[in-house]
């Protein structure tokens, strides 16, 4: 009997060992999943998204060419942009470049926009009582942007009345609401009183002014009062209201630019720039 119990004991141990071995074998067959490196996947997805959602530039520059019908296109391929063509009014000693629209499907609106742009560009002739056979005026035009909402044109040049000792530098601008075929003025960009205070402050920034000219401009700008600047900016831009404005403004890529008159020695006008996001 003792021998039989001994044998049974050994069999029990063996059976237990086999059961344990089977469990280990079954567990070993269930491998844990390997970790996946997602860094390259995130990078590729981000690059793909950036490429697919990149917006085309909305600004374009129109270059004045000798021909009166020089073509100027805004960013090609964007359905939001429109094309402009440069024209030149030339009579006697007067030459003024101005844009017209070329690719709006609405012919009636195109004609109205062209008439408004031309009228404003040539308005200096009557405002300054220019005698085209005797006074010299040369004005070029740069279209800063043109889309189905706005057209922004900036005019610069020189005016030399008959027998004048020297030419006067001139600058004016025109921003047109395409949908309404109307002019957009200073108060659409900024508050005249607030901008008057900005001009008189130490934070005033001048566009394209070197250090020497900036020092002089920072001094002479304070010769005009807050009230005078406020009135100047209130009456800025087209449409004309009796007299030609002393100040013109426009917006380009979120920055507001506007002119103020300065002495001839400093260029006759200076451009102030104001970036709302930085103030």
Please explain how this structure is put together.
The N terminus is likely disordered. The chain has six helices and eleven strands. Helix 4 crosses helix 6. Helices cover 33% and strands 26% of the residues. The chain folds into two domains: 130 residues, Fervidobacterium nodosum Rt17-B1 like (Heat Shock Protein 90), CATH 3.30.565; 92 residues, no CATH class. It has 279 residues and is an alpha+beta fold. Strands 1-2-3-4-5-6-7 form a seven-stranded mixed β-sheet, covered by helices on one side. A four-stranded antiparallel β-sheet has the order 8-11-10-9, with no helix packed on it.
In short:
The chain has about 280 residues and is of the alpha+beta class. Helices cover about 35% and strands about 25% of the residues. Strand 2 and strand 3 form a beta hairpin.
Which short descriptors sum up this protein?
four-stranded antiparallel beta sheet, 279 residues, 33% helix, 2 domains
Count of DSSP-assigned helices: 6
Largest sheet: 7 strands, mixed
E-strand count: 11
Strands side by side in the biggest sheet: 1-2-3-4-5-6-7
Task: Reconstruct the topology from this structure.
Elements: H1 2-29, H2 39-53, E1 70-72, E2 84-91, E3 94-101, H3 107-127, E4 136-146, E5 150-160, E6 168-177, E7 182-184, H4 192-200, E8 205-206, H5 211-220, H6 226-234, E9 249-252, E10 255-261, E11 269-274
Parallel strand pairs: 3-4
Antiparallel strand pairs: 1-2, 2-3, 4-5, 5-6, 6-7, 8-11, 9-10, 10-11
Helix pairs in contact: 4-6
């Amino acid at each position: 009997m003792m021998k039989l119990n001994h044998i049974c004991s050994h069999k029990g141990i063996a059976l237990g060992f086999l059961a344990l071995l089977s469990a280990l074998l079954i567990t070993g067959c269930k491998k844990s999943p390997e970790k996946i490196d997602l860094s390259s996947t995130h990078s590729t997805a981000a690059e793909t998204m950036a490429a697919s959602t990149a917006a085309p530039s909305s600004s374009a520059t129109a270059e004045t060419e000798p021909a009166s019908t020089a073509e100027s296109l805004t960013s090609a391929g964007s359905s939001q942009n429109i094309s402009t063509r440069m024209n030149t009014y030339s009579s006697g000693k007067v030459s003024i470049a101005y844009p017209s629209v070329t690719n709006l499907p609405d012919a009636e609106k195109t004609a109205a926009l062209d008439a408004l742009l031309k009228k404003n560009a040539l308005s200096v002739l009557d405002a300054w009582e220019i005698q085209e056979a005797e006074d010299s005026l040369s004005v070029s035009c740069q279209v800063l942007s043109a889309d189905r909402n706005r057209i922004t044109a900036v005019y610069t040049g020189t005016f030399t009345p008959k027998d004048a000792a020297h030419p006067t530098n001139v600058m004016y601008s025109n921003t047109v609401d395409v949908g309404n075929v109307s002019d957009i003025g200073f108060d659409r960009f900024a508050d005249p009183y607030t901008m008057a205070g900005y001009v008189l402050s130490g934070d005033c920034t001048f566009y394209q002014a070197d250090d020497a000219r900036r020092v002089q401009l920072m001094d002479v700008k304070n010769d005009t009062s807050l009230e005078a600047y406020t009135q100047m900016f209130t009456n800025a831009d087209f449409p004309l209201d009796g007299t030609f404005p002393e100040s013109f403004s426009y917006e380009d890529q979120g920055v507001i630019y506007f002119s103020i008159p300065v002495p001839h020695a400093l260029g006759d006008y200076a451009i102030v720039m104001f970036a709302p996001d930085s103030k």
